[in-house]
Amino acid sequence: MNEYVIRFSVERRIEHACVMLLFLVLAVSGFAQKFFEAQWAQWLIAAMGGLQNVRWVHRGAGILFAAVVVGHLAWALYLVASRRSKPSIVPTRKDFSDAVMMIRYYLRLSDEQAQFDRYDYRQKFEYWGMVLGSMLMIMTGFMLYLPVLTTRLLPGEFIPAARIAHSNEGLLAFLVVITWHIYNAHLSPDVFPFDVGIFTGKVTRERMEKEHPIEYDRMRADAKQERDAHPEA
């Protein structure tokens, strides 16, 4: 019988679910507008009650998505500033050496694999790509939502530039999710057919020891220290 450890808190799981649902709504409503001449897009627009409804759904989901992203970053900065959490998602020099080591391993130039902490270099790359991409989408989205205010502060050329950036970044984000993220979460041999860790918050000890040995060793050391401090528990 597999033993499990808690890897993600309830708050992180709810946050992930919100981002996942909002991203889906934004993709559907956004692509319906981007490819409005296509038959499938016209069917989606009709099913959602017309183009005006599609626009309001997209704007509403965008505002909620912006609130989730800003809230996430603000809370993360607070935790790090108050020393209640370590900036474990921030890339370090070790991530670059880990990437080189794993490339050598995949090319069978070495038998040694990198030892990862809470997040490996691939997860950090995906996270920061999402954060930076989300910030671009949020800024350009509000510029398009409030064009009059935008042109009071910036030259008018920023509006068409924002439209192009918003549209293309949305398409890029969608392609990254259905290739990189879907593979790692569903199709990778280590997790196929489905990685439920972010939904249940739990992963097996065997997987933790294999994929995140540094974090696993630290968890064991912390648990031992807790037992030694409270032997009566």
Rg, rounded, reads 22 Å
Query: Uncertain spans, ≥5 residues at pLDDT below 50?
Result: none
Sheet having the most strands: 2 strands, antiparallel
Strands of the biggest beta sheet: in what spatial order? Answer: 1-2
The tally of structural domains comes to: 1
Describe what this molecule looks like in 3D.
- With 233 residues, this protein is mainly alpha-helical.
- It has a single domain, classed as Up-down Bundle (Fumarate Reductase Cytochrome B subunit), CATH 1.20.950.20.
- The chain has 10 helices and 2 strands.
- The protein has a two-stranded antiparallel sheet with strand order 1-2.
- The chain is elongated and about 65 Å long.
- The two termini are 25 Å apart.
